Known about the structure:
The chain starts with 9 loop residues before the first strand and ends with a helix. By secondary structure, the chain is an alpha+beta fold. The chain is built from 16 helices and 17 strands. α10 runs parallel beside α15. The strands form 5 sheets. Strands 4, 7, 8, 9, 10 and 11 form a 6-stranded mixed β-sheet that branches. A 3-stranded antiparallel β-sheet has the order 3-6-5, with no helix packed on it. Helix content is about 35%, strand content about 15%.
Amino acid sequence: MPTNDWVVVLVLKPSRSHQEFQEFLVEQIKKYYLEKDFSGTVLLFHRELARVWLSDLTKVTNIIRFRYSLGKGAPARDPVDMFRSLLLMEMTRCPSVDDWVKNLNSLPIWAIFSGFEPDNVPGVGTFYDFIKRLWLADSPHLSSKVRKPRRKPKKGKKKGEKSPIHKPGIVKRLVDRFLSRPTVFKVRPHDLLQQIFKECFVMPSARMGLLGNVEHLRFAGDGSSVRTGAGRYGKLTCSCRKQDVFNCQCPRRYSDPDASWEWDSYREEYYYGRGIYAFSAADSPYDLPLYLLFHKARRHDSVVFVTSFFDLMHIYPEFKFEECLLDSAHDAYAIYELLHHYDISAVIDLNKRNAGNISCQGEFTFSKDGVPICRAGHIMAYHGYCKDRQRHKWRCPMTRKKWHVKCDNSCSTSKYGRVFYTCEQDNLRYFTRIPRDTPQWKAHFKRRTTVERVFKMLKEDFLIERRGKIRTSMTWYLRVFAASMCIHIDAWVSHLKFDIRPMILQWKGEFSSQAA
């Protein structure tokens, strides 16, 4: 049977090197702007030019080569140029591919920065076809478009209260399962974007020293809410309304089936969308992200952390992770066990609902931060870490003259004072490797906010929630990864103090001398 469906087979040609791309930039800028004495226009967009000048994307071709035909067919667009153009679309906060193609055709400088000749710009369909090659799934959604409606939950959340875990004990079961059997990593639709993000952006940042010491890497993790641009009511697929049934529970068709209702504790409101989880380098002065994952909105941060942690370890075998910084939503004993198993120091804030005093042989108690309290009610003084026995040492507070502690019922006759030891293995939650409520612990925990600043840059600087009505998981992943890549590029420009304006003026001088 003849059909009207056409399949276009594209063959990938060899990509040019980054140096050849830079030579192309100089040649085209001279031809279209400097020759016509429009150097002011080039200087106006010097920031974008500096970003593409530093961004070496030649590895993109090898990463997605298998997505193209190896036989005969029409020559494909250079994937490096296509991907660079999508990054420029994100840098300029363009809301859609359609608008971006209009910009490429109306302003030649965007085509030149992308790597295209101004009179040979890809169309909208070419861009969408390339985006589909970056997505390892047949559907842009992760769920079926037809499902039963999910109503908005009833109000009842208290101010500042976070959503509880819907399945108690799930974190413990997940950790036990991952530790008891070999982890199987399946191919996921966004894997190519994560690989490009690692090879072309995270690893260059690591070589520049922008992530900190990768042999002793500290990382922070957290989740956030993301609102979708799709409708929350869906489209009816039944005829119940014709029968005067207006509150039916029949399946409906949703343009964003991966979205759902959930409580946002930060904004203190219910939202319709999904959740995003991220890891960032805690020692980075530029708050650089390492890992991104979208998930169902109702999934708790502690649950997402377990699966994301193993992804992080699998993606970056080159790094040695030493310390993990998390908020109180991750205060589950199973997470402490997981980090201890991989010899990673846990710096996790205690959950107030689970905090309380614990006793030790009826003689000592502990504060909510795990600091020993003597039987007279005084907080013990921290006296360092004993490496030989891997334990923390605490002394009588009267040994601290600046504290001015007086005790009428001393528990020791020694001048050295009473000594007490805490070991991490005794209680991983309270006796952390860095003692709680110490200046060192507070200094380390302050760096946890680096991951919150990543979310701030994604939402406020790159406007991922407000720029365009994104409805598919494929587009969400592309936009968020592209924005994270731009964060790394901006860090390179700042770190290298790279200013391309003197180079532009030099090109103008060279052209003027040649013309004379």
